[in-house]
Structure formats: structure tokens, C-alpha cells
What we know:
Bound molecules: zinc ion
Largest sheet: 8 strands, mixed
Low-confidence stretches: none
Radius of gyration: 18 Å
Strand content: 25-35%
Amino acid sequence: MNVNGVILIADITGYTQFLSATEIEHANFIVVNLFSAMLENSPKDLRVMEVEGDALFCWLPMEKRSVSIGPLFQLVQRQFRRFIGVQRWFTEVRGRHCDCHACIQARDLKIKFLLHRGQVGVYRIANFEKIAGLDVVIAHRLSKNSVPDDEYVLVTHTVEPGIVSGERQKWREGEDKYPIIGNIRYHYQKLDRSLIDELITPPFVDEIDNLSSHL
Ligand SMILES: [Zn+2]
């Protein structure tokens, strides 16, 4: 079955340096809490298709002919705020109690969001719903791009008509060439963490005592 919709990938930068064999338990705990907090109270249509270590791969079915960037951008901003809020908890609260590599390095994690609208094939393997198709491949390739910012949202031209005129000046245009796929045009906007001052308690904070300590 082919379905139209929007693919959203939230991709953590700095993850490889963050993981270290000896402190994997603390590193995983931090990432699970970051992703879970980002997904809390999401639109009910948003489906998590995969958690790929450092990336959250989501799918939002949407049959409408034109898709407006407004609600999608609000969703991304909300996820960004929650990411920063929980990250801040791990560095400012937890960081005072654990001096392991993972808990200290958590502050260096950055995040980017990639949005691409397209048509996918939906199928099931056992209890898992999967999506596949060229647009899924394109969405994954987008993580390699020439956007100069650390933290940003990138939206391919597939969503462009929905950008409201008043917001247009905040978006910059870019284009990258990918093997086989060809050129992909997109808009991007820098996400500014200095504007966010929330401190958010991680969803699984009650389980923190079950972690092995590195102190
Ligand atoms: Zn730790």
C-alpha cells in the first residue's frame, strides 16, 4: 500500500564520541530519555518507525495535497526544546553526581531535524510496521548536507509551498547532489538553543538508581 506523508528524522550529532564501551549503560540511558521526552504528547499520527542509535526515524501519514510547514515546524521546535531541557538536566543535575565520560559528554550532543514529504510503501513484518521506497532513501541521505549550522531543521522542497510568507526570511535555501538520486533542494533554519531555558526531568528518572554507578 502506498501512502503519502512526511518523514521526520531527528539526528543526534556527537553520538559516536559520546559512546564509550565502559559507560554504555549511562550513555544509552541518556539517549533513551532524550528521545522519549521528545516524543511525549506527540500528535497521535506520528509513528516511530525506528530508533537507529543516534537517530529517531518517524513517519507522519498525510494525504493532503499541500502540506504546510507551520505545524511541522512547531513539532520540531517542541522536540528541540524537550531535547535541550532533558540534556540540561543530565548535565546540570545528574552531572553533579556522576563524573563518567557519558554523563560529562552529554552536554556536547547536538541535534538536527530532517523533513521530507513523499510517498512510501507500508508493510508489516511480524508486529513491526515498516516503510520503504525512494523517499525513505532520500530522507536518510539528507543527514549528509552542506548546511553550515550545528543545529537546524532542514525541509526539502517537497514542503516548500507551505512556507508562510512572513516566516520566509528565516529560511535559507540550499541544494546538495546525491549519487543516483540527483539534486535535492531544501530550505533550512538554524535552531538556537540559547533561547531555551527549560530544565526538564527525564521521563525515566525513577530508574536512575538501577544504573551501575561510576563514582
Ligand atoms: Zn555517568
